[in-house]
């Protein structure tokens, strides 16, 4: 057994994550995905050492600042830790536009009260209340858009998605975090790039695609958008206009409902068939966690380099 010292008190730990140990002890530590993806459970290591897994997905700057993820850290020695209270900067935004764009997805546009810096492809925490939030990806292009576009998939009995599309009124305030995540499109990219999205996974990819094309990148881009059914297709007009304006963009829509078996395999095979010399390509995956995990594995087996694989798995929150 190891001892976790937090807020002046000691708690037993080991054989489970720091998040689980502190939750069992009756403390509330903000968290969401419990999978090392949303970074909601980020804390600071004050004393001791933790296994590398605790740093999974954090930037070098954060690691140097002794940040770690409580849901990924299973301590093997005594540690002393603290919250990041006050270190994550939240920003107030105004909901200025909302429109239903498919059977299950709404587009929301938020106007930040002060500048919100972000990279194409990053995501935000959207707060329902102080400790209750969900992650949503930014569909805007940081080079040209000051407003924040979000694509919200309405989850049956989902607390925050239903609140965002049914309860918050135009003109009301929504609290969001600073931008997070490392699945981003860079300022300089020469590689042909395949973007693979399922359902609202199109959000970050739309932001990255706009950045890439508007900044004048001339290499080949393929977008493959998988939807549960025809009624879930969205942004088709906007994407067709992009395709007409930029001959280096090719778009394929994929309807999962038309495939009887092995849907994920057929989708990923269709997407990866766009690639001829895999070692030259960057591949981005955004959307359902199973699609992302399977797609990354198949891309690697096909010959895409690990360093050229980028992803955001839309892991549901696990707040209860
Ligand atoms: C980095 C990141 C970026 C994301 N970006 C987006 C985005 O741009 N657009 C978007 O729509 N979503 C996105 N998500 C997913 C979104 O955060 C979750 O779907 C969230 O849980 C929805 O909140 P809710 O309050 O509506 O439902 P909850 O109250 O959290 O969930 C209600 C129930 O539905 C289940 N559930 C929740 N989401 C899903 C789902 N997607 N599929 C199946 N079951 C689900 C939960 O497990 C729970 O049982 C992202 C997630 C991550 C981690
Ligand atoms: S990264 Fe730990 S809860 Fe999401």
Annotated CATH homologous superfamily of the largest domain: Nucleotide-binding domain of ferredoxin-NADP reductase (FNR) module
The number of helical segments is 7
CATH topology description of the largest domain? Rossmann fold
Termini, distance in Å? Answer: 26 Å
Average residue-wise pLDDT:
94
Main CATH class of the largest domain: Alpha Beta
In the CATH classification, which architecture of the largest domain applies?
Answer: 3-Layer(aba) Sandwich
Per DSSP E runs of 2 or more residues, the count of β-strands stands at 16
Report the bound ligands by name, code or SMILES. flavin-adenine dinucleotide, FE2/S2 (inorganic) cluster
Beta-strand portion reads 25-35%
Quickly give the structural class.
Answer: alpha/beta
Strand order of the largest sheet: 9-8-11-6-7-10
Helix proportion: 10-25%
Q: How much is the radius of gyration in Å?
A: 20 Å
Count of all domains = 3
Broad shape: globular
In short:
With 320 residues, this protein is of the alpha/beta class. It has helices at 18-24, 60-64, 159-167, 202-214, 236-245, 263-272, 289-302, and strands spanning 2-6, 9-13, 42-47, 67-69, 79-82, 90-100, 105-112, 123-129, 132-137, 148-153, 173-177, 193-198, 221-227, 249-255, 282-287, 309-313.
